Amino acid sequence: MISAVDGALRRALPGRCAFCLEAAAPAAPWCSSCFSALPWNRSACPHCAEPLPEALAGEPCGHCLVAPPAFGRSRVPLRYEAEVAGMLRRFKFHASPRAGAVLLALLEAELAAEARGWPEAIVAVPLHPQRARERGFDQAGWLARRLARRLGVPLVRAERHRDTPSQRGLDRDERRRNVRGVFRVGVPLPGRVALLDDVMTTGATLNALALACRRAGAREIEAWAVARTPLLP
């Protein structure tokens, strides 16, 4: 079913840029001008992907120096701004498959060859079942199913056994407390695991999931997402 839907999306995407509707680049859902102008997150903390000044690119941020996350590094190619933020909202709140396909293509475009061959499993950030029923759409699961299939690795499902309040409006410490101990992985994990979410804010949710994955046997963990939000205190 996934392959049939994705095939239809790929046939529909070429031709026009998803951002400006001008002619797209060959075999891509964007034109070269829009692709270059996207808010790339290339000057970022290697651990939590927090955007940093260019002079500090590749250096850990102050938060990670004080309290390193449970995952070793992050791969989050874009900042949650402008056209990217709009497309993520269409995907997350309106279940737009075209927006999802473009976002997944952007993530894949920025995954180096070594990253593509690195994970032995992918674990999506899960919604609580009640929240999933209310929303009717699990955006991280949608991305993870397709990415796992394309990378040829298993998708392992985690459980969110407590329906926590929204993280929106919480500061960094409140976010960490809100999701502490909320995830569970019920099967043994391989050594190298990539966690996947659509948007990363402070990394608190991904950190809580990484701790659950370590309890399930993962030794090396990376956090992957499409975009990173602006800085929080």
Task: Assign an overall shape.
Answer: globular
The rounded distance between the terminal residues' Cα atoms is: 43 Å
- Determine the number of helices (DSSP H or I, runs of at least 4 residues): 10
Largest sheet: 6 strands, parallel
Give the C-alpha Rg: 17 Å
The mean pLDDT is 88
- Extract low-pLDDT stretches: none
Could you tell me the number of beta strands?
8
The chain-level structural class is: alpha/beta
**Topology as H/E string?**
HHHEEHHHEHHEEHEEHE
The percentage helix is 25-40%
Share of β-strand residues: 5-15%
Structural summary, described in words:
The chain has 233 residues and is of the alpha/beta class. Helices cover 39% and strands 14% of the residues. The chain contains 10 helices and 8 strands. Strands 1, 2, 3, 4, 7 and 8 form a 6-stranded parallel sheet that branches. A two-stranded antiparallel sheet has the order 5-6. 37% of the residues are buried. The mean pLDDT is 88.
In terms of topology, how is this protein built?
Blueprint: H1 2-12, H2 32-37, H3 62-66, E1 73-75, E2 78-79, H4 82-94, H5 97-109, H6 113-116, E3 121-124, H7 129-135, H8 139-151, E4 155-156, E5 159-160, H9 172-178, E6 183-184, E7 192-200, H10 204-215, E8 220-228
Parallel strand pairs: 1-8, 2-8, 3-4, 3-7, 7-8
Antiparallel strand pairs: 5-6
